[in-house]
Write a structure and sequence with these properties.
The protein is α/β, with parallel strands linked by helices. Helix content is 40%, strand content 10%. The radius of gyration is 22 Å and the shape is globular. The structure holds zinc ion. GO terms for molecular function: metal ion binding.
Length: 364
Protein backbone atom coordinates (compact mmCIF):
# COMPACT_ATOMS: atom_id res chain seq x y z
CA UNK A 1 0.00 0.00 0.00
CA UNK A 2 1.59 3.23 -1.09
CA UNK A 3 1.83 6.38 0.93
CA UNK A 4 0.02 8.18 -1.81
CA UNK A 5 -2.94 5.85 -1.38
CA UNK A 6 -3.05 6.39 2.37
CA UNK A 7 -3.07 10.14 2.01
CA UNK A 8 -5.75 9.91 -0.66
CA UNK A 9 -8.07 7.66 1.25
CA UNK A 10 -9.27 10.07 4.00
CA UNK A 11 -10.34 12.71 1.53
CA UNK A 12 -12.17 10.07 -0.47
CA UNK A 13 -13.96 9.00 2.70
CA UNK A 14 -14.95 12.61 3.37
CA UNK A 15 -16.31 12.98 -0.13
CA UNK A 16 -18.34 9.85 0.43
CA UNK A 17 -19.81 11.18 3.67
CA UNK A 18 -20.78 14.55 2.32
CA UNK A 19 -22.42 12.92 -0.69
CA UNK A 20 -24.40 10.73 1.70
CA UNK A 21 -25.50 13.74 3.76
CA UNK A 22 -26.62 15.55 0.63
CA UNK A 23 -28.63 12.54 -0.47
CA UNK A 24 -32.35 12.94 0.04
CA UNK A 25 -33.15 10.66 2.92
CA UNK A 26 -36.43 8.91 2.39
CA UNK A 27 -36.61 5.34 3.42
CA UNK A 28 -39.45 3.81 1.44
CA UNK A 29 -41.70 2.95 4.37
CA UNK A 30 -41.09 6.11 6.39
CA UNK A 31 -42.74 9.46 5.99
CA UNK A 32 -40.60 12.41 4.98
CA UNK A 33 -39.94 14.52 8.06
CA UNK A 34 -40.59 18.15 7.13
CA UNK A 35 -40.01 21.10 9.44
CA UNK A 36 -41.58 24.44 8.55
CA UNK A 37 -40.99 27.77 10.22
CA UNK A 38 -44.68 28.69 10.63
CA UNK A 39 -48.19 27.33 10.36
CA UNK A 40 -49.17 28.56 6.89
CA UNK A 41 -46.23 26.74 5.33
CA UNK A 42 -47.05 23.62 7.36
CA UNK A 43 -50.55 23.52 5.89
CA UNK A 44 -49.20 23.94 2.36
CA UNK A 45 -46.70 21.10 2.89
CA UNK A 46 -49.45 18.85 4.27
CA UNK A 47 -51.56 19.53 1.19
CA UNK A 48 -48.76 18.76 -1.24
CA UNK A 49 -47.18 15.96 0.78
CA UNK A 50 -50.34 14.18 1.89
CA UNK A 51 -49.77 10.80 3.49
CA UNK A 52 -46.10 10.80 2.60
CA UNK A 53 -45.03 13.57 4.97
CA UNK A 54 -44.99 14.31 8.66
CA UNK A 55 -44.90 18.06 9.26
CA UNK A 56 -43.66 19.95 12.30
CA UNK A 57 -44.22 23.70 12.48
CA UNK A 58 -41.80 25.56 14.72
CA UNK A 59 -44.13 28.53 15.25
CA UNK A 60 -47.53 27.10 16.14
CA UNK A 61 -51.01 28.31 15.20
CA UNK A 62 -51.71 31.90 16.31
CA UNK A 63 -47.98 32.40 16.92
CA UNK A 64 -45.97 35.40 15.80
CA UNK A 65 -43.09 34.27 13.59
CA UNK A 66 -41.55 37.76 13.55
CA UNK A 67 -40.50 37.60 17.19
CA UNK A 68 -40.15 33.86 17.77
CA UNK A 69 -37.44 32.47 20.06
CA UNK A 70 -36.47 28.93 19.07
CA UNK A 71 -36.28 26.29 21.81
CA UNK A 72 -33.80 23.41 22.22
CA UNK A 73 -36.65 21.16 21.03
CA UNK A 74 -36.71 23.08 17.76
CA UNK A 75 -33.04 22.30 17.20
CA UNK A 76 -33.83 18.61 17.79
CA UNK A 77 -36.70 18.79 15.28
CA UNK A 78 -34.29 20.19 12.74
CA UNK A 79 -31.74 17.49 13.48
CA UNK A 80 -34.34 14.85 12.56
CA UNK A 81 -35.65 16.63 9.48
CA UNK A 82 -35.35 15.49 5.89
CA UNK A 83 -36.55 18.82 4.53
CA UNK A 84 -36.86 22.32 5.99
CA UNK A 85 -39.24 24.90 4.50
CA UNK A 86 -39.16 28.55 5.45
CA UNK A 87 -40.56 31.78 3.99
CA UNK A 88 -37.45 33.88 3.42
CA UNK A 89 -37.38 37.63 2.61
CA UNK A 90 -36.21 38.05 6.23
CA UNK A 91 -39.63 37.06 7.60
CA UNK A 92 -38.08 34.70 10.14
CA UNK A 93 -34.50 35.84 10.74
CA UNK A 94 -34.21 33.47 13.71
CA UNK A 95 -34.62 30.52 11.33
CA UNK A 96 -31.27 30.94 9.65
CA UNK A 97 -29.56 31.31 13.04
CA UNK A 98 -31.32 28.16 14.24
CA UNK A 99 -30.26 26.21 11.17
CA UNK A 100 -26.62 27.09 11.64
CA UNK A 101 -26.84 26.33 15.37
CA UNK A 102 -28.44 22.93 14.77
CA UNK A 103 -25.91 21.54 12.27
CA UNK A 104 -28.79 20.80 9.91
CA UNK A 105 -27.24 20.27 6.51
CA UNK A 106 -30.16 18.83 4.58
CA UNK A 107 -32.37 20.33 1.93
CA UNK A 108 -33.83 23.80 2.42
CA UNK A 109 -36.80 25.25 0.57
CA UNK A 110 -37.15 29.02 0.54
CA UNK A 111 -40.85 29.29 -0.22
CA UNK A 112 -40.60 32.82 -1.66
CA UNK A 113 -37.84 31.86 -4.10
CA UNK A 114 -39.15 33.23 -7.40
CA UNK A 115 -41.80 35.50 -5.86
CA UNK A 116 -41.80 39.06 -7.14
CA UNK A 117 -41.35 40.91 -3.85
CA UNK A 118 -43.11 44.15 -3.06
CA UNK A 119 -40.72 46.63 -1.60
CA UNK A 120 -41.37 47.93 1.87
CA UNK A 121 -41.34 51.52 0.62
CA UNK A 122 -44.32 50.87 -1.62
CA UNK A 123 -46.70 50.69 1.30
CA UNK A 124 -44.89 52.30 4.17
CA UNK A 125 -46.15 55.79 3.37
CA UNK A 126 -48.59 55.95 6.24
CA UNK A 127 -46.57 54.54 9.07
CA UNK A 128 -43.68 55.83 11.11
CA UNK A 129 -41.22 55.00 8.38
CA UNK A 130 -42.41 58.06 6.48
CA UNK A 131 -39.87 59.26 3.99
CA UNK A 132 -39.59 62.77 5.30
CA UNK A 133 -38.72 61.53 8.75
CA UNK A 134 -35.64 59.83 7.37
CA UNK A 135 -34.77 62.62 4.98
CA UNK A 136 -35.68 60.57 1.92
CA UNK A 137 -38.09 61.84 -0.61
CA UNK A 138 -39.97 59.53 -2.92
CA UNK A 139 -37.72 60.47 -5.80
CA UNK A 140 -34.64 59.27 -3.97
CA UNK A 141 -36.31 55.93 -3.30
CA UNK A 142 -37.10 55.48 -6.95
CA UNK A 143 -33.62 56.38 -8.06
CA UNK A 144 -31.75 54.02 -5.78
CA UNK A 145 -31.61 50.33 -5.39
CA UNK A 146 -33.62 49.59 -2.27
CA UNK A 147 -30.91 47.22 -1.13
CA UNK A 148 -28.70 50.23 -0.52
CA UNK A 149 -31.03 51.46 2.18
CA UNK A 150 -29.40 49.51 4.91
CA UNK A 151 -30.72 48.82 8.34
CA UNK A 152 -29.27 52.11 9.50
CA UNK A 153 -32.33 53.77 8.05
CA UNK A 154 -34.62 51.61 10.13
CA UNK A 155 -32.28 50.77 12.95
CA UNK A 156 -35.07 49.89 15.34
CA UNK A 157 -36.49 47.17 13.10
CA UNK A 158 -35.26 43.78 12.07
CA UNK A 159 -36.75 43.63 8.62
CA UNK A 160 -35.53 43.92 5.07
CA UNK A 161 -36.65 46.29 2.39
CA UNK A 162 -38.91 43.69 0.86
CA UNK A 163 -42.27 42.71 2.26
CA UNK A 164 -42.14 39.02 3.21
CA UNK A 165 -45.93 38.44 3.51
CA UNK A 166 -46.28 37.17 -0.07
CA UNK A 167 -48.74 34.38 0.86
CA UNK A 168 -51.42 37.07 1.17
CA UNK A 169 -51.59 37.10 -2.66
CA UNK A 170 -52.78 33.66 -3.75
CA UNK A 171 -51.11 33.99 -7.13
CA UNK A 172 -47.78 34.58 -5.41
CA UNK A 173 -48.57 31.63 -3.17
CA UNK A 174 -48.58 29.43 -6.28
CA UNK A 175 -44.81 29.97 -6.25
CA UNK A 176 -44.71 28.67 -2.67
CA UNK A 177 -46.56 25.51 -3.67
CA UNK A 178 -44.31 24.88 -6.66
CA UNK A 179 -41.21 25.28 -4.47
CA UNK A 180 -42.64 22.91 -1.85
CA UNK A 181 -43.56 20.36 -4.53
CA UNK A 182 -40.05 20.49 -6.00
CA UNK A 183 -38.46 20.22 -2.56
CA UNK A 184 -40.53 17.15 -1.71
CA UNK A 185 -39.70 15.53 -5.05
CA UNK A 186 -36.00 16.14 -4.44
CA UNK A 187 -36.27 14.68 -0.93
CA UNK A 188 -38.43 11.72 -1.90
CA UNK A 189 -38.31 10.97 -5.61
CA UNK A 190 -40.20 7.68 -5.16
CA UNK A 191 -43.40 9.62 -4.52
CA UNK A 192 -42.83 12.32 -7.13
CA UNK A 193 -46.05 11.48 -8.97
CA UNK A 194 -48.11 11.88 -5.82
CA UNK A 195 -46.51 15.24 -5.02
CA UNK A 196 -47.17 16.47 -8.56
CA UNK A 197 -50.80 15.34 -8.48
CA UNK A 198 -51.42 16.79 -5.00
CA UNK A 199 -49.83 20.10 -5.97
CA UNK A 200 -51.91 20.32 -9.13
CA UNK A 201 -55.10 19.68 -7.18
CA UNK A 202 -54.13 22.22 -4.54
CA UNK A 203 -53.23 24.86 -7.13
CA UNK A 204 -56.67 24.39 -8.68
CA UNK A 205 -58.34 24.95 -5.32
CA UNK A 206 -56.17 28.02 -4.80
CA UNK A 207 -57.28 29.44 -8.16
CA UNK A 208 -60.92 28.94 -7.15
CA UNK A 209 -60.41 30.71 -3.82
CA UNK A 210 -58.48 33.48 -5.59
CA UNK A 211 -61.52 34.06 -7.84
CA UNK A 212 -63.86 34.05 -4.81
CA UNK A 213 -61.70 36.67 -3.09
CA UNK A 214 -61.70 38.88 -6.20
CA UNK A 215 -65.48 38.69 -6.45
CA UNK A 216 -65.88 39.70 -2.78
CA UNK A 217 -63.30 42.48 -2.73
CA UNK A 218 -64.54 43.91 -6.04
CA UNK A 219 -67.69 45.00 -4.20
CA UNK A 220 -65.67 47.23 -1.86
CA UNK A 221 -65.23 50.81 -3.12
CA UNK A 222 -61.68 51.30 -4.38
CA UNK A 223 -60.92 54.23 -2.06
CA UNK A 224 -61.67 52.25 1.11
CA UNK A 225 -58.92 52.10 3.73
CA UNK A 226 -58.72 49.93 6.83
CA UNK A 227 -56.27 49.57 9.69
CA UNK A 228 -54.71 46.32 10.90
CA UNK A 229 -52.27 45.43 13.66
CA UNK A 230 -49.12 45.39 11.55
CA UNK A 231 -48.22 45.97 7.93
CA UNK A 232 -48.95 42.47 6.65
CA UNK A 233 -51.52 42.96 3.89
CA UNK A 234 -49.46 44.73 1.23
CA UNK A 235 -49.69 41.76 -1.14
CA UNK A 236 -53.39 41.35 -0.46
CA UNK A 237 -53.93 45.03 -1.22
CA UNK A 238 -51.85 44.87 -4.36
CA UNK A 239 -53.62 41.76 -5.64
CA UNK A 240 -57.22 42.36 -4.63
CA UNK A 241 -57.69 45.96 -3.46
CA UNK A 242 -58.46 47.72 -0.15
CA UNK A 243 -55.85 50.08 1.24
CA UNK A 244 -54.30 48.76 4.47
CA UNK A 245 -52.72 51.05 7.04
CA UNK A 246 -51.07 50.00 10.28
CA UNK A 247 -49.74 51.64 13.42
CA UNK A 248 -46.46 49.74 13.17
CA UNK A 249 -44.39 48.73 10.18
CA UNK A 250 -43.77 45.32 8.71
CA UNK A 251 -42.36 43.93 11.90
CA UNK A 252 -44.39 43.19 14.98
CA UNK A 253 -41.27 43.91 17.03
CA UNK A 254 -41.95 47.62 16.90
CA UNK A 255 -44.10 49.33 19.47
CA UNK A 256 -45.74 52.35 17.97
CA UNK A 257 -44.48 55.53 19.53
CA UNK A 258 -46.89 58.17 20.67
CA UNK A 259 -45.79 60.26 17.70
CA UNK A 260 -46.57 57.56 15.15
CA UNK A 261 -49.96 56.92 16.74
CA UNK A 262 -50.70 60.62 16.52
CA UNK A 263 -49.59 60.63 12.87
CA UNK A 264 -51.85 57.68 12.17
CA UNK A 265 -54.81 59.44 13.75
CA UNK A 266 -54.10 62.33 11.35
CA UNK A 267 -53.94 59.93 8.41
CA UNK A 268 -57.25 58.39 9.49
CA UNK A 269 -58.79 61.84 9.34
CA UNK A 270 -57.52 62.34 5.78
CA UNK A 271 -58.10 58.92 4.26
CA UNK A 272 -61.33 57.08 3.74
CA UNK A 273 -60.71 54.77 6.69
CA UNK A 274 -63.83 52.72 7.37
CA UNK A 275 -62.83 50.18 10.00
CA UNK A 276 -60.17 48.66 12.21
CA UNK A 277 -59.34 44.96 12.33
CA UNK A 278 -57.59 42.84 14.89
CA UNK A 279 -55.00 40.30 13.80
CA UNK A 280 -54.93 36.88 15.38
CA UNK A 281 -51.22 36.90 16.19
CA UNK A 282 -50.53 40.48 17.27
CA UNK A 283 -51.28 42.43 20.41
CA UNK A 284 -54.81 43.78 20.20
CA UNK A 285 -54.24 46.72 22.54
CA UNK A 286 -52.90 49.00 19.80
CA UNK A 287 -56.02 48.55 17.71
CA UNK A 288 -58.24 48.94 20.77
CA UNK A 289 -56.45 52.18 21.60
CA UNK A 290 -56.93 53.48 18.05
CA UNK A 291 -60.62 52.58 18.19
CA UNK A 292 -60.95 54.65 21.36
CA UNK A 293 -59.10 57.61 19.89
CA UNK A 294 -60.89 57.65 16.54
CA UNK A 295 -64.32 56.18 17.25
CA UNK A 296 -63.87 53.79 14.33
CA UNK A 297 -65.42 50.33 14.69
CA UNK A 298 -63.36 47.16 15.12
CA UNK A 299 -64.92 45.07 12.36
CA UNK A 300 -63.43 41.65 13.07
CA UNK A 301 -60.24 39.63 13.11
CA UNK A 302 -58.02 39.07 10.09
CA UNK A 303 -55.49 36.27 9.86
CA UNK A 304 -52.18 37.71 8.83
CA UNK A 305 -49.14 35.58 9.65
CA UNK A 306 -50.59 32.49 11.31
CA UNK A 307 -53.43 30.01 11.05
CA UNK A 308 -55.71 29.27 13.99
CA UNK A 309 -55.67 25.98 15.85
CA UNK A 310 -59.20 25.11 14.73
CA UNK A 311 -62.07 26.53 12.72
CA UNK A 312 -62.22 27.99 9.25
CA UNK A 313 -58.85 29.73 9.45
CA UNK A 314 -57.02 26.55 10.44
CA UNK A 315 -56.10 26.07 6.78
CA UNK A 316 -54.45 28.50 4.40
CA UNK A 317 -57.38 28.42 1.96
CA UNK A 318 -59.86 28.89 4.80
CA UNK A 319 -57.83 31.77 6.20
CA UNK A 320 -57.83 33.59 2.86
CA UNK A 321 -61.57 32.99 2.43
CA UNK A 322 -62.24 34.21 5.95
CA UNK A 323 -60.25 37.43 5.47
CA UNK A 324 -62.01 38.28 2.21
CA UNK A 325 -65.45 37.61 3.69
CA UNK A 326 -64.81 39.65 6.86
CA UNK A 327 -63.56 42.57 4.76
CA UNK A 328 -66.51 42.21 2.39
CA UNK A 329 -69.10 42.05 5.16
CA UNK A 330 -67.70 45.17 6.81
CA UNK A 331 -66.95 47.27 3.75
CA UNK A 332 -68.88 46.20 0.64
CA UNK A 333 -71.43 48.56 -0.82
CA UNK A 334 -74.25 46.76 -2.63
CA UNK A 335 -74.37 47.80 -6.24
CA UNK A 336 -70.80 49.09 -6.28
CA UNK A 337 -69.21 48.37 -9.64
CA UNK A 338 -65.46 48.33 -9.56
CA UNK A 339 -63.87 50.44 -12.30
CA UNK A 340 -62.51 48.19 -15.04
CA UNK A 341 -64.36 45.27 -13.56
CA UNK A 342 -63.75 43.07 -16.60
CA UNK A 343 -60.03 43.37 -16.21
CA UNK A 344 -58.78 40.61 -13.97
CA UNK A 345 -55.22 40.88 -15.03
CA UNK A 346 -52.55 40.68 -12.36
CA UNK A 347 -51.62 44.34 -12.57
CA UNK A 348 -55.04 45.84 -12.06
CA UNK A 349 -53.87 47.82 -9.07
CA UNK A 350 -52.51 51.32 -8.94
CA UNK A 351 -49.00 50.48 -7.86
CA UNK A 352 -46.18 50.71 -10.28
CA UNK A 353 -44.16 47.85 -8.94
CA UNK A 354 -40.51 47.51 -9.49
CA UNK A 355 -40.05 43.82 -10.05
CA UNK A 356 -36.41 44.04 -10.90
CA UNK A 357 -35.01 43.39 -7.46
CA UNK A 358 -32.26 40.88 -7.39
CA UNK A 359 -33.28 38.62 -4.55
CA UNK A 360 -30.96 35.77 -5.39
CA UNK A 361 -29.28 36.27 -2.05
CA UNK A 362 -32.35 34.76 -0.44
CA UNK A 363 -31.90 31.48 -2.30
CA UNK A 364 -30.57 28.53 -0.43
ZN1 LIG B 1 -46.04 39.89 9.65
Amino acid sequence: MSLAYLSYRPSRWLVGVSALLALPVAIADERVQVVTSFSILADMVENVGGEHVEVTSLVAADGDAHVYSPSPGDARSLANADLVVFNGLLFEGWMERLISASDYSGALVTATDGVEPLSFAEHEDHDEHGHEEHGHDQHAHEEQDHEEHGHDDHADHDHGNEDPHAWQDMQQAEVYVANIRDGLIAADADNADAYRANAEQYLQEMAEVDAEIRALIDEIPASTSVITGHDSFGYFSSAYGVNFLSPVGLSTEADPSGASMAALVDVIAQENVQALFHENMTNQSIINQLAEETGLPIAGTLYADALTAEGEASTYLGMMRHNARVLHDALAEPGYIKPGHDDHERDHDDHDHDHDHDHSEHNH
